[in-house]
Amino acid sequence: MLVNKSMFPIQAGYSVISKMNEQLGKLQLQLGTGQKASSLAEMGGDRTNSLSLRARLTKLTAYAENMTTVNMRLSFLDQSFTTLGKLKSEARTSATAGSYGENNLVMVNLQKMSQDRLALVIDSLNANVGGRYLMGGNVTDRPPVASYNSIMEGTGGLAGYKQTVSERNRADMGAPTTLASIGVPKITATGNRVDFNAAGFEQAGYSIVSISSTTGSVRTTEPDHSSPPADVSATFTSQPAPGDSITVTYRKPDGTTASKTLVADTDFLIGADADATAANFATALGTTMGALDGPKLGRLTVGAAGDTVTVGDITGPFGYKLASVTTTGSTIAVGTNLGSPSTVSVGFPSQPRAGDEVTIGLTMPDGTSQLVTLTATTDVAGPGQFQIGATPAETADNFSRGLQAKLGSTSETALKAASTYAAADDFFSTDGIPRRVDGAPPETATALRDGTADTVVWYTGQLTGDARQSATAQIDDVTFAGYGVRANEQGLTELMRTLAAMSYEGYPTEDPTSKGRFDAMVERQMQNLSASTAAQDGSVESIALELGVVKSSIGNTTSRNTAYTHQLETMLTDVETVSMEETSMSLLALKTRLEASYQVTASVSQLSLVNYLK
């Protein structure tokens, strides 16, 4: 049997000391790094918890980055909608019907102010952050709205709003008429005297300024403006000589003055006697004055037959549309046949009484309503009146003439304003398809057409879909923040339409229709931008509110995720890091044990039977 010279188990002692050395190295590493392990393999059962916690923290970090980006974009959108809301409010309160300002300054400057506001609206709708456009829905690489000049003036051969509204105005007004077509003026010759009845003439917007002659053979009577209408006359006391002339000076509806001169033997024949010459002059003057521009009837037809006046409209979107007819006179018969086209009738089977009214309800091209009222009078009829004649047929004829004159004055104000707004509705479409008058000349057109090929498209972003969901960011496991905006949303489009219409119309003080057009335009602006529109989907206010809710939601989620992140980081610290105090104590304890092991091992390693026997 072999006997070792040492009976002490040296190998076992060395193994234990080696393990304690390894443990000492780990504790020193933990004390230096604060980490329980330098690799996942050394973490043992904590490895799964560590991976799970870190994955969750990575998601929360990504959500936080998303929310930071969205918050920055929402800040820009908030600034833009603050500007848009201010512009909308300014436009709504900048002018009211009947308030023209001192020296008409509000009226005269309204167009320029509207142009400035429209340009600012376009700039706001084209807001971008870092090259990303914010109001084109999911189309973010280009401005969603065309430039101001392109929209208003056109570009590259494409028509702008100004051209389309000009065409629409002509289409709604219809073909021009003449004074003769409505039975104006009434010029009669009685013997050698020619009388110019100015009643219908003034109803149509004209007025006689003066009448003069270059010859003593014709005696003229100047108009007496103290009691309108100002009738005038010319009496041929003897035969005029060839070349003698008579001049009638008149004021036109636009406020300017013009004259018509008729020369004897050139414009009217010198007859066999003064009576014949007077008759020839009356015919020539009636033809000359009857050729003057008559009222624009808005595509309506007005005709008298016997004791009944019939009014008709046309099929298609242009001009006035008949909606109703009512009367306060029990002797006046009214009838309707509403369809497409429509007709209304006003009959006088017996004479009306002075003060009886007939009101025709009209639908305007922009969908608004307008009432046209005529009042019966026994005096000479002025604007908005019709004279009760000697017979029902004559009364009907007077009503027809008065109605056409009233329609003409309404056309120059309310109809033109409605037409301008209707053109804005067609041009600033929400579906990306501008519409314009189909056919030339526009006065005879009966339909609209797709203008995409030859008209500026004002909005080129995303056309349909949920606007808010056109741009989203995930801010939680189940929460997506939708912060998209489309410049073609209803409220934003309406703001563009209204300001474009107001930018088109000017109101020079010398134009007698300016105040009427100003009132009609401003009334529509106030209605389109009224405070009541704030509750509508897609309004400036509702979009701003929805974006504010998103911003608030992101703020709440940020607070919640921050607290959750702190909890996860604490848990991860418990899993991956060590307590410095406990590690230090463990290291000291292990050091003491290791030193004792070294001493004992050194002493025992010297023991042997031989040494003991010595």
UniProtKB/TrEMBL annotation:
GO molecular function: structural molecule activity
InterPro entries registered for this protein in UniProt: Flagellin
SUPFAM superfamilies: Phase 1 flagellin
Region described as Disordered: 216-245
Any single Gene Ontology cellular-component annotation: bacterial-type flagellum
Coiled-coil parts of chain: none
Domain of life: Bacteria
PANTHER family attached to this UniProt entry: FLAGELLAR HOOK-ASSOCIATED PROTEIN 3, FLAGELLIN
Protein's recorded name: Flagellin N-terminal domain-containing protein
